[in-house]
Amino acid sequence: MTGAAENQTFRTAIVPAAGLGTRFLPTTKAVPKELLPVVDTPGIEIVASEAAQAGANRLVIVTSPGKESVVNYFQDAPELEEALERKGKSKLLDKVRRAPALLDVEVAIQKEALGLGHAVAQAEPNLTDEDEAVAVLLPDDLVLPAGVLERMSAVRARHGGSVLCAFDIPKAEISPYGVFDVSETDDPDVKQVHGMVEKPAPEDAPSTFAAAGRYLLDRAIFDALGRITPGSGGELQLTDAVALLIKEGHPVHIVVHRGGRHDLGNPGGFLRAAVDFALDDPEYGPSLRTWLADRIGN
Ligand code: UTP
């Protein structure tokens, strides 16, 4: 048995995709940002694949009326598949079949974008008694390389409670993030969390560990989500529910992920991700590299 399977503490992953995507207007008038392609694959498929690799077998996508295409993306496309088969386009056929084969996809609806915490709460009716903990992955946050959820699962198996993912950010650059107040454990990359400060000035930051869009949450989060009131931006914030759990003595730890990250939620971050992935792509990488060097040279 592999380490991941031994420490498997969740089977269901929740992906909230019901936001308005205002930073990507005007495109998001018609196209959900979760479906924008990183080279040729939507961000939400990359994240769903990460969840499947970490042992999830069920994905609950929280979406809003009008954004059903996010869920449709994970359904079979028999007519298209037949056409590709007829034309002998086997590589494309594999790509088209990849997302529906990853894991079982279900939908939950958030009627109004009342915040990330509210979005996650809409997935509770989809859970079964076996879901003692759930993974939450933000589809606009690529955490690279994949694998942090397995480590988070091992931390829950050892310490119980909920586990979040963090990046170690230089102090001077910490201000845009939610920052954890932590104490050490016997593992240098695992810290116990005592609180969180949103967007602090560098001198007020309690640490250099900033929150990323991966959460492994004890089922108790849903009760906490029912008790929070609107916070930052007038929205029901997931971090406020986590803070409530901490206050009530629920163990919360972070795993410090020493890797890369792309924020697909704004055009600047999205472009970086697309270029990063395209440079590694055997088909598009070499000519992109040459063109970029030439473009920058000029
Ligand atoms: P973001 O804040 O990045 O997404 O939320 P947004 O609100 O769509 O983007 P902007 O700020 O308007 O540009 C992180 C994730 O949480 C989801 C979003 O869809 C995104 O995937 N979300 C956010 C919801 O599902 N519901 C909400 O009410 C808010």
Describe the structure.
The structure is a single chain. A hairpin with a 5-residue loop joins strand 9 and strand 10 (190-198). It contains 11 helices and 13 strands. The model has no long low-confidence stretch (mean pLDDT 95). Helix 10 (267-279) packs across helix 11. Strands 5-4-1-6-11-8-12-10-9 form a 9-stranded mixed sheet. A two-stranded antiparallel sheet has the order 2-3. The longest helix has 13 residues, at 90-102. It has 298 residues and is α/β, with parallel strands linked by helices. Uridine 5'-triphosphate binds next to helix 6.
In short, what is this structure?
The protein is of the alpha/beta class and 298 residues long.
Task: Give structural attributes.
single chain; 298 residues; alpha/beta; 13 strands; binds uridine 5'-triphosphate
Estimated share of beta-strand residues: 15-25%
Count every helix, treating DSSP H or I runs of 4 or more residues as helices: 11
Any idea what the radius of gyration is? 20 Å
Order of helices and strands: HEEEHEHHHEHEEHEEEEHHEEHH
Please tell me what the overall shape is. Answer: globular
Low-confidence segments:
none
Helix vs. strand class: alpha/beta
**Integer average pLDDT:** 95
| Residue share in helix | 25-40%
The hetero compounds bound to this protein are:
uridine 5'-triphosphate
Terminal CA distance reads 55 Å
Largest sheet: 9 strands, mixed
Strands in their spatial order, largest beta sheet: 5-4-1-6-11-8-12-10-9
Number of strands: 13
Please outline the helices and strands:
Blueprint: H1 3-6, E1 12-16, E2 37-38, E3 41-42, H2 43-53, E4 58-63, H3 69-72, H4 78-86, H5 90-102, E5 104-109, H6 116-121, E6 133-137, E7 141-144, H7 148-159, E8 162-168, E9 178-184, E10 190-198, E11 209-218, H8 220-225, H9 238-247, E12 252-256, E13 260-263, H10 267-279, H11 285-297
Parallel strand pairs: 1-4, 1-6, 4-5, 8-12
Antiparallel strand pairs: 2-3, 6-11, 7-13, 8-11, 9-10, 10-12
The chain binds uridine 5'-triphosphate.
